[in-house]
Design brief:
Blueprint (H helix, E strand, L loop, with lengths): L6 E3 L24 E8 L3 E4 L2 E8 L3 E8 L10 E4 L1 E8 L7 E8 L4 H23 L9 E5 L5 E2 L5 E3 L4 H9 L7 E3 L9 H15 L2 H15 L17 H4 L2 H19 L2 H14 L3 E3 L1 H12 L4 H7 L6 E10 L2 E10 L9 E9 L2 E9 L3 E7 L6 E4 L12 E3 L7 E4 L6 E6 L8 E7 L4 E7 L3 E5 L6 E8 L4 E8 L1
Parallel strand pairs: 8-9, 9-11, 12-13, 14-20
Antiparallel strand pairs: 1-6, 2-5, 3-6, 4-5, 7-8, 10-11, 14-15, 15-18, 16-17, 16-19, 21-22, 22-25, 23-24, 23-26, 26-27
């Protein structure tokens, strides 16, 4: 909407506070309190951080607005906005806390407040929800609020967001920043995930709890679609890009993939009560201070007892995402899944994750979960119903590129070599008809000299090639009823 109002506002993130007030731009050195006095024409109002302590009439048709805040604040979160504003204030009533003032400076013109009022009013139940999930609104002794401006989106200025509209997800996102970005701030711009990934996930939490799970899942699908457009990108900002604002605020990576990996952490924990308890503990530990991605990882490990190094090396520091190609067969009362994981980036060749599989049959469906610990895995499931289909990650917990799902074909070769050519390791994938049958494996050089041999009953057989020189080799498999030979290249 165009309200034909002049408005002046500040926007300092990430390196621009010094352009309008003298300051030390160091994230780890939070300012302990602020007194911000703003003089403007008497027909205007000036909004800022904290509480409005006094409004003083001055000569020449001027007014001074005196704002004070006694919460620690980072340099880029100090702000003001001035326009012909109307003050529309409401309250939130979070459990285990007093009422929270929500003070909104909206253009003082016909139709503006009615237009935005429904969106503004959503703020109250969002504060109540987030206080339940993440801990009491961290600046409850002062206020939360909005200053309407011509900003394209919003900026989470502490206790009073600068905002361009009141769409549901924008209001939720900027409010979420009060916990994630303001109360606990990223320790460096390389760890912007601490701010933007978490705030983006509060949008999902809002939809899931206050709108519908279907809407929340739609939002996560959208996040995945954007992240899939960055197959070579990491959420963590490399040092060389730490001063490039276009990289810091890359929407697909810092926001959407950042939100997606929090959703995956929730799936890995597989216990919502524990997941939100971990977030509350993390916020309390780093309250009014700064944190890194590793700080959150350490909180996860302390609370769960699990090692999250592989997860963070893959999803936070690593690049890209996995793809799962499935081949399955049903032999008697056993379902066999052969899962081949490939990835979008050579820098992250493996994602070790829990994967859900939805198995459908005429009477219904069931979902099982397996841990993918290497690129090629075989999983056996006791299953005595006729299978009509298999779906990978049916509830869209994980960022992954859709792969193929094929039923075993009897005309397939006895085994496949993955990859071929190979470097340090290859995997022999035997067809399902040989499940649990003893197989003798023989390795020959190109001149036919036997190098070594061994026996196995496994259908997925990893083989280390580090002792072999580069060149062409022959693998022969022998069973009680047949033999099969195939060449491969070590490079």
């Amino acid at each position: 909407a165009n309200w034909n109002k002049y408005v002046t506002w500040t926007l300092s993130e990430s390196f621009h506070a010094f352009e309008w007030w003298p300051c030390k731009q160091v994230l780890s050195d939070k300012i302990d309190s602020t007194h911000i006095y703003l003089t403007c024409d008497s027909n205007c109002k000036a909004g800022s951080n904290g509480l409005l302590k006094r409004t003083i009439n001055l000569p020449y048709n001027k007014k001074r607005y005196e704002w004070k805040s006694h919460y620690p604040i980072n340099y880029y979160l100090i702000s003001f906005a001035v326009s012909e504003y109307h003050d529309y204030s409401i309250y939130a009533y979070p459990e285990n806390g007093d009422s929270v003032l929500i003070q909104n400076f909206i253009y003082n013109t016909n139709g503006c407040l009615p237009y935005y009022k429904p969106g503004i009013d959503n703020t109250a139940e969002l504060i109540e929800l987030f206080s339940e999930k993440f801990g009491l609104y961290p600046f409850a002794n002062e206020k939360y609020g909005h200053c309407l401006t011509e900003l394209g989106g919003g900026m989470e200025h502490q206790t009073m967001t600068t905002i361009g509209n009141f769409s549901y997800l924008l209001v939720a996102h900027e409010l979420g920043h009060m916990w994630f970005g303001d109360y606990v701030t990223c320790a460096s711009w390389q760890d912007i995930w601490i701010n933007e990934g978490f705030a983006s996930y509060t949008e999902y939490v809002a939809l899931e709890n206050l709108v519908s799970l279907q809407d929340a899942k739609g939002l996560m699908s959208y996040a995945h679609s954007l992240a899939l457009e960055e197959p070579q990108g990491s959420v963590y900002i490399p040092f060389d890009d730490a001063f490039d604002e276009s990289r810091i605020f890359n929407y697909a990576l810092s926001y959407e993939k950042g939100s997606a990996i929090l959703h995956m952490i929730r799936h890995e924990i597989n216990n919502d009560e524990l997941f939100f308890s971990i977030i509350r503990d993390y916020l309390q530990q780093f309250a009014d201070s700064v944190a890194t991605g590793d700080d959150f990882k350490n909180t996860l490990e302390l609370k769960t007892g699990d090692d999250f190094d592989p997860f963070f090396n893959q999803w936070y520091y690593g690049k890209g995402f996995p793809r799962f190609d499935i081949e399955y067969a049903q032999l008697s009362d056993t379902l066999i899944l052969l899962v081949n994981e490939s990835t979008s980036s050579a820098e992250t060749p493996l994602f070790q994750v829990h994967v859900d599989y939805k198995i459908t049959y005429p009477q219904g469906d069931t979902t099982v979960r397996f841990y993918q610990s290497k690129n090629v895995e075989t999983f056996n499931i006791a299953f005595n119903k006729e299978i009509t289909g298999i779906e990978v990650d049916p509830d869209n917990w994980m960022l992954n590129e859709p792969g193929s799902i094929k039923k075993y074909n009897n005309n397939q070769p006895v085994f496949k070599i993955i990859p071929n050519p190979a470097n340090e390791e290859l995997t022999l994938n035997f067809n399902f008809s040989l499940n649990n049958e003893e197989k003798q494996i023989e390795f020959f050089d190109i001149n036919g000299q036997l190098l070594y041999t061994f026996k196995t009953r496994k259908n997925t057989v990893p083989i280390n090639l580090s002792s072999l020189k580069n060149g062409m080799y022959i693998i022969k498999s022998k069973t009680q009823d047949n033999s099969y030979t195939q060449k491969f290249i070590k490079q």
